[in-house]
Amino acid sequence: MGKIKVLDEQLANQIAAGEVVERPASVVKELIENAVDAGSTTIDISIEEGGLTLIKVIDNGYGIEASDIVTAFQRHATSKISTSSDLFRIASLGFRGEALPSIAAVSRLQCMSSDTATGLARRIVIEGGKVTIDEPANAPQGTEMTVRDLFYNTPARLKYMKAIQTELGHISDYVNRIALAHPGIAITFKHNGNVLLRTLGSGDRLQVIAAVYGSNTAKVMLPVEAETSDYELRGFISKPELTRANRNGITAIVNGRYIRSHTINQALLQAYHTLLPINRYPLVILELGMHPSLLDVNVHPSKMEVRFSKEPELRIMIEDAIKAVLRGQRHIPGPESIT
Ligand code: ADP
Ligand code: MG
Fold it and tell me: Is the CB of 298 under 6 A from ligand 1?
């Protein structure tokens, strides 16, 4: 007999978790993404000790059918894609079917869900990847995920965790971005019982900007909008006098997903160009909409990076749209003033 064997599922999940679950913020991100994908209009997130002892996400989305709940925690199990062509038109935030099994492999997790179709609720408890409880439950419509003792069975990873404030900072950052991306969802975020963010879900992005950055900042943001046959752009940009010391004030959202994009950053910084003091950056929230086939999100397990198929067009649209707004503010000399 040869020496090569296929790893058992539990071990495979633990290995995948190394990639998908880098730190508590990764868990928060994946659970919120699932809540958004489920069409939720409210999402409550509460964490304790920077997410290391507890992460709880409650949504009012369409839920997981009782008969699906164990399957949802299997590797590569997803309701979001089913064929390879789906991979080239991803309309949901998730699609890899890796988050739940990965999180469950490195924590003590409880999932309670009641789906809209049957109205039946079920609860399962999984410890280190092993299902220990699987029973009917009483629960309101939606899903409640409770993740305790993250990395309790992977001491090497646990040791690598930073101070609670650092982990909280990463989580807070992601929650703020997803709130900016989805002003139509009422989001509450608590750490050790203290409310750190509350949005109303009214659809008004300025309200979210006020909740995240303060109402004085929200008051001086300028709306930006543009459209080409392929792309739609909306958002808010800061006047050049409101600057920050780093790029963290830039939030790029593509088809509902918060992403990091060098292309987008470059285009918008190019638009501000000489209006910003050296090493100062604007506060910008840009939401791009496009046909999913123009976007490749299958670049990295964290799904934070994407590839655009018509990058030059996108770059020009962003740069021109922002320049037009700033010109309206008379910061850039318009063509009429060039002699
Ligand atoms: P993915 O999001 O890539 O499909 P996950 O492992 O994150 O994979 O979730 C597996 C499946 O479990 C999802 O496809 C979805 O059907 C279901 N699911 C997970 N979380 C929720 C939720 N909050 N509400 C409804 N369904 C959920
Ligand atoms: Mg997911």
Answer: no
Helices (H), 53-163: 99-105, 155-160
In order of 33, 60, 95, 182, the CA distances from 40 in angstroms are 10, 5, 17, 11
The reply to whether ligand 1 has any atom less than 6 angstroms from the CB of 112 is no
SS3 for 306? Answer: coil
CA atoms within 13 A on the CB side of 199: 32
User: What's the ipTM?
Assistant: 0.99
Distance CA 257, CA 249 (A): 16
DSSP state of 181: H
Question: What's the gap in Å between 316 CA and the centre of ligand 2?
Answer: 33
Task: Please tell me the number of Cα atoms within 13 Å of 190 on its side-chain side.
Answer: 13
Strand blocks (E) in the chain: 42-48, 54-59, 108-114, 121-127, 130-137, 142-148, 186-191, 194-198, 221-227, 231-238, 250-254, 257-259, 284-290, 295-296, 307-308
The token pair at 280 is: 């100062």
Other beta carbons less than 10 A from residue 178's beta carbon = 27
Is the beta carbon of 16 within 6 A of some atom in ligand 1?
A: no
Amino acid found at 291: H
Q: Which of 26, 37, 257 to mutate to test the pocket of ligand 1 (most atoms within 8 A of CB)?
A: 37
pLDDT tens-digit map of 173-214? 999 999 999 999 999 999 999 999 999 999 999 999 999 999
Record the tokens describing residue 235, joined without a space.
């958002």
335: Cβ contacts below 8 Å, ≥ 6 apart: none
| Claim: this prediction has a pTM higher than 0.90 | yes
Is the Cβ atom of 31 under 6 angstroms away from ligand 1? no
Closest CA to 228 of 284, 290, 271, 270: 290
Residue identifier of the C-alpha nearest atom 2 of ligand 1: 94
